Amino acid sequence: MSLRDAFRSPATSLDDQMESYATSRVPHAQRWPAFAILLILTGNVTAMFWFTLGGQIGFLVGWPGMLLPIGYLVVVSTILGALIMRIASKEGLSLVLLTRGLGFGAKGSAVASFVYGINYIFYFIFEGSIVSHALSQYFGIGQGSAVASVIFALVGAAALFFAWRGMHSMNILQRFGMPIFIGLFIVGMLMLADGHALVGPGQWESLSPGDPTVMAQAFSLANGQIVFQALLATDYGRFSRPQIGYRGTAAIMFGELVMIAVVMILGSLLAFTLYPTLSQENPQLWATDPGFVFALVMGFLGVVFTIITQIRINVMNLYSGSLAFANTWDAFAKRPIRRTHWMVGLLVLGILLYPVNVLQYTDTFLAVTGIMTNTWIFILLADYFVCRRLLRFASTDRIEYEDHEVRQWNPCGMIAMAVAVLVGALGLFGVYPVYYASFAAMLIGPIIHVTLTAATRGRFYAVAPVPVAA
């Protein structure tokens, strides 16, 4: 295979590009080389979110303590992503379709996919807000003004254009977008060094040195992302060739996550360098707001930088969100709604919710997503590797997903998910420290699921037999 072919997608019809096999298996003829998958995932690496998360973790625990939660994120996400992506590539199914056969049932999977889709609404607004914050800093446009909402809508529409044809248009965008991102970021770092005294890692100290819980809080932030990165990778990993093994999927995940770790550390560099110079109220929030930071450091070039970066990552948010909602609808309605229509809906919803500055709720959101998405995925992995492969309650040769193959509801997965989320919610409401909530939920969920599946001998996997009339 030539180098060019390693990054090239197979030819397919325009209709298949648009639908992107949202509710069906990806045919073997439409599988992509591993390098082409990794190229698309580099769009996630350049998300402004990572600058924010790196700065927040740095402010919590300082250096070198921040390497512990970042290392946890890299190692655990690589392992989880390798396992889930391998299953998805073998089956050619999106994570939501896999959920149908892995312990939830057809309608049960729709509940999980709806929760999954909500994540992308948050990230879509998060990244779009960063653009308006950059414009606010440079042009003096109010962050909650009507003009800012219009700008958010225009930039979101540009992302919609590139996400319309799914994987194929994203492949083109990410191929040329990464060099632009790297070039502009290097310029930004040079301008930062020229205009500010750089604060190196030796001076990165916790802003709450007397708080013994800061490391637990930092791990909670990281835990909110360990599964989500695997989820995102799986949406694209289902297109990888079936013969790819766990080493191949682990290599894709590790390559992406190492780059993410570098961006997070650079996010701390930006935050600690600018923090002493800010006079605004709540300088921690401003120092971890990439839109404000890059516009402050780079001027108009910083605005261009945030716009380009936001379009690249929001293409992925629109694409994955549309997959989730298309499957949610498909499970309950007889008449499907095209994936592209769901992207338009996500854009409209993002515009309506934009005036809420979601950056200030990042820690709460990561706690919630850690509870819900982590629990969901740990249940799926427990179902596949324990209930199916170890206990042999169902086949591992082929995961069923069509309505005539699976039950509408599998109570084992649903009960396990409900109990685990309830336990996590108790942490959110202060019954115990919230930074333990996602860990408690993701451990309890799979234990309950395996227990219930073993107790019922796996009878909820297959469709219930239709009684024969006497």
UniProtKB/TrEMBL annotation:
Lineage top rank: taxon: Bacteria
Spans traversing the lipid bilayer: 34-53, 65-84, 104-126, 146-164, 176-193, 213-232, 244-272, 292-311, 342-359, 365-387, 408-429, 435-455
Keywords noted in UniProt: Membrane, Transmembrane, Transmembrane helix
GO molecular function: cytosine transmembrane transporter activity
InterPro entries found in the cross-reference section: CodB
GO cellular component: plasma membrane
This protein's name: Allantoin permease
Gene source species: Leucobacter massiliensis
